[in-house]
Amino acid sequence: MPSPADFHTHSTFSDGRLSPTQLVELAYRNGVRIMALTDHDIVDGLPEAFAAAAKHPDFSLVPGIEMSSDIKGGEIHILGHFIDWENPPFRERLSRLQESRLGRARGMVNKLAQLGKPVTWERVESFADEGSVGRPHIAQAMVEAGHVENITEAFDLYLSRTGPAYVERDKLTPEDNIEMLLRVGGLVTLAHPAEGGGLETLEPLLARLADAGLSAMEVYYQDYDAETISRLRELADRFGLIPLGGSDYHALGNPRQREPGMIPLPMEQVTRYLQLARERDALKRARGPAAVA
Ligand SMILES: [Zn+2]
Ligand SMILES: [Zn+2]
Question: pTM for the full model?
Fold first, then answer.
């Protein structure tokens, strides 16, 4: 059952395959009327997304971002919505993160050369298009060079956390990220909470993140089944979080992928989130009818 809202999507400005314009058009065709563009650690796709959204008077675009945070033994992803994405200190902080990511990607390319699986930096960059270079782009270059069959194999054999070409990121705690997003007036949502450590480790994490200013958690995510949804829903209620959702659409052809809006996110929860954004005066940073409703 599709939803008219989707709070989690990616474009070519990070690791998605569709431009912001193509993404807005696809979402619109799917019946989505409120969409957040949440590229990884970058907001540069937003001007194009806003321009595409402006062609549809009944469509609202929410300025967003997805940020990676390190926790013991893994990483979690945090979404910021309704952010003041043009704020200069925020942009400066993002470009510093970007520089450190570039250094890291170059490090992985160097390691691959040492492992006898060379890829050129130019090819890696070309896969990233105008977006930030990351492991998926290195993986694509590896497939192209014939070192592996597909992207999954590139991760499994070389680029995963325990892989021989892996280079650690600069560490950011979830509190760092939440603070950074709250500072630019954003509402903060925990992304895909059932990934990684699974639901067992989630309770103490939610207590910690709720204290830090988390407002919502993805419950209606991608292909989560009814049982996962109901367990997450119960946890969201317990920690006073709005059960939100998104497709996390990348257009990568992954079998778990759902197109924008193809998630069972109830409108009632969308309304709660918009209401909270209104109370925080954050809704004005969205553009389109939701912003004025
Ligand atoms: Zn994510
Ligand atoms: Zn994502």
Answer: 0.86
Tell how far the Cα of 195 is from the centroid of ligand 1, in angstroms: 9
Q: What is the pLDDT of residues 261-292, one digit of tens each?
A: 999 999 999 999 999 999 999 999 999 998 77
Question: Which ligand neighbours the alpha carbon of 190 most closely?
Answer: 1
**Nearest bound ligand to the CA of residue 191:** 1
The letter for the amino acid at 259 is E
Q: How far is the CA of 263 from the centre of ligand 2 (A)?
A: 14
Q: What is the dihedral of CA 279, 280, 281, 286, to 10 degrees?
A: -100
Report how far apart, in Å, the C-alpha atoms of 139 and of each of 74, 87, 227, 242, 252 are: 20, 33, 33, 35, 13
**114 C-alpha to ligand 2 centroid (Å):** 31
CA distance 188 to 201: 20
Separation of 116 CA from ligand 1 center, angstroms?
A: 30
**pLDDT tens-place string over residues 89-108:** 999 999 998 888 889 999 99
Contact, 267 vs 4, CB < 8 A? yes
Confidence of residue 195 (pLDDT cuts 50, 70, 90): confident
Q: What is the pLDDT of residues 144-156, one digit of tens each?
A: 999 999 999 999 9
37 alpha carbon to ligand 2 midpoint, in Å? 10
Strand residues in 168-223 grouped as ranges (E): 187-190, 216-221
Radius of gyration of the chain (CA): 18
